[in-house]
UniProtKB/TrEMBL annotation:
The keyword Transcription does not apply. This is Tyrosinase copper-binding domain-containing protein. Keywords: Copper, Disulfide bond, Metal-binding, Oxidoreductase, Thioether bond. The keyword Metal-binding applies. Gene3D superfamilies: Di-copper center containing domain from catechol oxidase. One of its GO terms (molecular function) is metal ion binding. Belongs to the tyrosinase family. Residues 197-214, 361-372 form the Tyrosinase copper-binding domain. Its cofactor is Cu(2+).
Length: 580
C-alpha cells in the first residue's frame, strides 16, 4: 500500500526537477513538457520572468528521504495505511512554551510593538471540552439584530478596557496573531520558527484562535451563548442588507470600528474576492463583480480543491522550513479579502492587509469566521476527496492560547475537527457559488492542437505507471515560487487561454486558480529582502474535464501577474504535473 501510493506520486517528476538550472528567463514564451508515453505534455506560456534556479536547500530538515515518503503517502490519501510504526517519524509542529518569545519582525514603517504574550503565572493545562456550555450559533454579521449588535459592541468594549497586561485584552488578542505570524515563536525541540500561515496549519490554528477569542468575549459578557458573527462575503445575493460589503456594525459601533481600512472599499462597494491589490480603471458593475466573486469561489472551493492537501495546504512538520504552500482557500478568498480590506494609504496596508496588524481590526474575526465556516461547507460538497487530513503530524500539532480564565491552554489540531465538539455551528446562508460553474471562452478547445507548434524547449515528464484512477486528481504544481514576504504578490493561472492578461475575468472555465501573498515579515531564513519560496498546487482535473481536454497531450498554462507587484518579475523554479 505504501509503495503503491509512493510510486503514483513519485513517478511524475519533470526534467526541471533533475536540472533546476535550465535557464528559462523569458518575456513571454512557451515551454513544452514532453511525455514519454503520452500522459501529458504541458506547454507553458509565461508572462513573467522565469528563472530556473537551484532550489535553496531547506535548512533544518532532517531524515529527508523518510519524511518525503511520509508526505507523499499522506497526500495520496492513504495516510492511515502508510503511517510508519508508532513514534518512528512522529514529527508534529509544536509550540512548547511562550517563554522563548522574541520580538516580532515587523515590516518597514510599522510602529514598534511587542507581540509577545504576558508570561503565564500558572502551569500550562491541556485543553478539555467543556460540555456544560450551551451550543452557540454563529450568525452572518449583516443579519445581526440591533440587540445582537449591542451585545457584540459591549463585548468588545469590555475587552478593550481590560488592563494592558491581561492576555485577554483586545490588543493582546491582536498580538497573538502577530506573534504566530511574524517569527516570535520557535518550535519545541527545534530552532525553527513557528509559522501558522502557508501550510496545513492555517485552518485549524485559526479555528482555535477564534474559539478562545469568542469564549473570552462570552465570559466578559457573562453570557456563554455569545457567538462571533461571520462576514458572509461569499454571499452575492442582491438586496438589503448586503452580505458582500463591510457590514454596518463595523462602521457604526466605536469598539468595532478600525480607522485603517481602505476608504475606497466602504459600502456600497462590493468586496472583490479576486482583488489584485490595486484599484485601477472603472469600478465594475455590481452584477459583474458578483459573477466574478461566484466564479472565484467556485474555482477555489469546488473545482480546484478536491483533495485534502489542495484545500488545506502543504504538510509542515517539526523543523521544516516555513511556508511550504497554502491551500486554495488560504490564497483566495482569504488573502484577497485581507488585502482588499486594509488601508491602501498605510505603509503596509495596515491593519488587515498585513499579518502583524490584521487582527487589530475586529472584522478580522468575522472574516476568519467565514473562512472557518467554509471549512465546514467544503467537507459537504460533492466530488473529490473532501475530508480532513489523517496524517498524525497534522492531528498532533500543538499550540498555546490563553483561555477565558487567563489560563494558558495547550490544544491539538485533532480536537478541533468539528465545530460541534467545540460547541458552535454556523447559520446556513446558502452557498450559491457552489453551482456557479463558469462557461468556456469561445475557441479555447481549438487551442489544444496548436499548442505544441512553436515550443522552444522540450522537457520530459515522467510516465505514470499505474492505471488511471478516477479518484485521482491531476495537480499542476508551480514549483519554487519566489516571493518577497512584504509584498502583496498575486498572479492568476489559466489553462488554454494564452491570450489571458490582467484584464481577463476569472469567470471563465479556463481559470485554474490564483496565488496570493498577504504581506508579512515572516521568515528570517528568507535572507535579503525577506524572500521565501513556496509551491502553488492547483487541482485541474475538473477544469480539464470542463474544457473537454482531459486526455489531451498538450495544455497551455498562462500565468498572469496582477496588481501592485505585476511589474516585478515573479520567479519560479518550474512546473510539473502530479497525481494525488
Ligand atoms: Cu492569520 Cu487571515 O490570517
Amino acid at each position: 500500500m505504501a509503495a503503491a501510493t509512493n510510486s503514483s506520486s513519485n513517478s511524475l517528476l519533470s526534467a526541471l526537477d533533475r536540472d533546476p538550472r535550465t535557464d528559462l528567463r523569458l518575456g513571454r514564451a512557451r515551454i513544452q513538457f514532453g511525455g514519454r508515453s503520452g500522459k501529458r505534455l504541458c506547454t507553458t506560456t509565461i508572462k513573467c520572468v522565469h528563472e530556473g534556479e537551484e532550489h535553496a536547500r531547506r535548512s533544518g530538515r532532517t531524515s529527508d528521504v523518510n519524511r518525503r515518503e511520509f508526505v507523499l503517502g499522506s497526500i495520496g490519501g492513504g495516510a492511515a495505511a502508510t503511517l510508519p510504526a508508532a513514534g518512528a517519524l512522529a514529527n508534529p509542529v509544536e509550540l512548547g512554551s511562550i517563554s522563548s518569545c522574541s520580538p516580532a519582525e515587523l515590516p518597514p514603517g510599522a510602529t514598534p510593538v511587542n507581540c509577545c504574550p504576558p508570561p503565564n503565572s500558572s502551569p500550562i493545562v491541556d485543553f478539555q471540552y467543556n460540555t456544560r456550555l450551551p451550543q452557540r450559533l454563529r450568525r452572518p454579521a449583516h443579519l445581526l439584530r440591533p440587540d445582537e449588535i449591542a451585545r457584540y459592541n459591549r463585548a468588545y468594549q469590555l475587552m478593550r478596557a481590560l488592563p494592558a497586561s491581561d492576555p485577554r485584552r483586545f490588543s493582546q488578542q491582536a498580538n497573538v496573531h502577530c506573534a504566530y505570524c511574524n517569527d516570535s515563536f520557535r518550535q519545541a525541540n527545534s530552532r525553527s520558527e513557528l509559522q501558522i500561515h502557508d501550510s496545513w496549519l492555517f485552518l485549524p490554528w485559526h479555528r482555535w484562535y477564534l474559539y478562545f477569542h469568542e469564549r473570552i468575549l462570552g465570559k466578559l459578557l457573562g453570557d456563554d451563548t455569545f457567538a462571533l458573527p461571520f462576514w458572509n462575503w461569499d454571499n452575492q445575493a442582491a438586496g438589503s442588507p448586503l452580505a458582500n460589503v463591510i457590514p454596518s456594525a463595523y462602521l457604526n459601533q466605536a469598539p468595532l470600528i478600525d480607522s485603517l481600512r481602505n476608504q475606497q472599499h466602504l459600502p456600497p462597494r462590493l468586496v472583490d474576492l479576486n482583488y489584485s491589490g490595486q484599484d485601477s480603471g472603472p469600478i465594475p458593475p455590481d452584477s459583474t463583480q458578483r459573477a466574478e466573486n461566484n466564479a472565484l469561489m467556485f474555482q477555489q472551493i469546488v473545482s480546484g480543491s478536491r483533495t485534502p492537501s489542495l484545500f488545506f495546504g502543504q504538510a509542515y512538520r517539526a523543523g521544516d522550513a516555513n511556508a511550504p504552500g497554502g491551500g486554495t482557500i488560504e490564497n483566495a478568498p482569504h488573502g484577497t479579502v485581507h488585502v482588499w480590506t486594509g488601508s491602501a494609504a498605510a505603509p503596509n496596508r495596515e491593519d488587515m492587509g498585513t499579518l502583524y496588524s490584521a487582527a487589530r481590526d475586529p472584522i478580522f474575526f468575522a472574516h476568519h469566521g467565514n473562512i472557518d465556516r467554509l471549512w465546514v461547507v467544503w467537507k459537504t460538497l460533492p466530488g473529490g476527496r473532501r475530508r480532513d487530513p489523517t496524517d498524525t503530524d497534522w492531528l498532533d500539532a500543538k499550540f498555546l492560547f490563553y483561555d477565558e480564565n487567563s489560563r494558558l491552554v495547550r490544544v491539538r489540531v485533532r480536537d478541533a475537527l468539528t465545530t460541534e465538539q467545540l460547541g458552535y455551528s454556523y447559520q446556513d446562508t446558502g452557498n450559491a457559488w457552489a453551482s456557479a460553474r463558469p462557461t468556456i471562452v469561445a475557441g479555447a478547445r481549438n487551442l489544444v492542437s496548436n499548442a505544441a507548434v512553436d515550443s522552444p524547449a522540450k522537457l520530459r515528464i515522467g510516465k505514470k505507471e499505474e492505471e488511471e484512477d478516477d479518484e485521482e486528481e491531476e495537480v499542476l504544481v508551480i514549483q519554487g515560487v519566489e516571493i518577497d514576504c512584504d509584498r502583496a504578490t498575486k498572479f492568476d493561472v489559466y489553462i488554454n487561454l494564452p491570450g489571458a492578461d490582467e484584464n481577463t475575468s476569472c469567470n471563465v472555465a479556463e481559470y485554474a486558480g490564483t496565488f496570493v501573498n498577504v504581506p508579512h515579515f515572516g521568515d528570517r531564513r528568507g535572507g535579503p529582502g525577506h524572500m521565501r519560496t513556496t509551491d502553488l498546487r492547483l487541482g485541474i482535473s475538473d477544469t480539464l474535464d470542463q474544457l473537454g481536454i482531459k486526455d489531451a497531450r498538450n495544455i497551455v498554462v498562462t500565468l498572469v501577474p496582477r496588481g501592485v507587484g505585476r511589474l516585478d518579475p515573479i520567479k519560479f523554479k518550474g512546473f510539473k504535473i502530479e497525481y494525488e
